[in-house]
UniProtKB/TrEMBL annotation:
Identification of the protein by name: UTP--glucose-1-phosphate uridylyltransferase
Keyword Hydrolase: no
Transferase recorded as keyword: yes
Gene Ontology terms describing biological process: UDP-alpha-D-glucose metabolic process
Positions of the Nucleotidyl transferase domain: 4-260
Keywords: Nucleotidyltransferase, Transferase
Transmembrane portions of the chain: none
Entry-linked Pfam families: NTP_transferase
Family from the record: Belongs to the UDPGP type 2 family.
EC numbers for this chain: 2.7.7.9
Amino acid sequence: MVFKAIIPAAGYGTRNLPITKAIPKEMFPINSRPVIDYIVQEAIHAGIKEILIILSRNKTAIMDYFDRSIELEWFLNTHQKSNMLKGIVPPKVSFQYVRQPQALGLGQAVQLGQTFAGDDPFVVLLPDQLCLKQPPPLCKMIKLYEQFKHPVIGLQTVERELLQNYGVISGKQIQAGVYRLDSIVEKPQINPPSHLAVMGRYILTSKIFAALNQLKAENGGELQLTDALNVLIQQDEAYGYVFKEKWYDTSIESEYINAQRCAYKMNKQT
Ligand code: G1P
């Protein structure tokens, strides 16, 4: 069973400056709920019971959001607004937090989850990649993990000129939409090995920590999760699952606006 998740949320949000000087991009609203709330709901929907969020110094708003607000609860209760209480109750999942002192890459952020994960498999959800479809494709990834007992990476077919923004895999298709991975490369500037890009959902085992621990930091001291995955793939099995659903990269303004529109429509229909 996969019941733990790590959400790395310690980046500077440079694509969204200047707002991200003060407001974490994970707190950008969609229907009065921050993006990270959708990510947490997705994890819960997929059966996750324990979540570790990797934060940086200026992101305490995320902890506040998932905490109880006793004063607000009191106010709503005493002002005939108790019907609103449902909307502010924290999700029924256990939260833990770790601070990443410096933004030294996704690999280093995940490395900070080693004690949390222990020997259990875990999901990594990148909070700027949002899918509004129910059930979330993460459910299918977990089923595949239960079948293979090896890492499963979420993928999407991406146009060639955009591949340089993603991790890109090479591999063999073993069933519809499922690949056995041969290699993975981070943001290839030339000759991408396929059109299949990593989309911000990973199911990993504790072996990833051994791979991360043996990596040498790149210029600037960053550790890439993709490089550790590539080490793993060379030694062991790993799989990719191609999403068919629409995904939104909420760090890109046009996609954030589209996600808002879609969520607004869905909200009106319910
Ligand atoms: C990260 C990963 C990359 C992945 C992307 C989208 O890059 O390093 O492999 O394809 O997320 O999920 P970032 O967008 O943080 O630079």
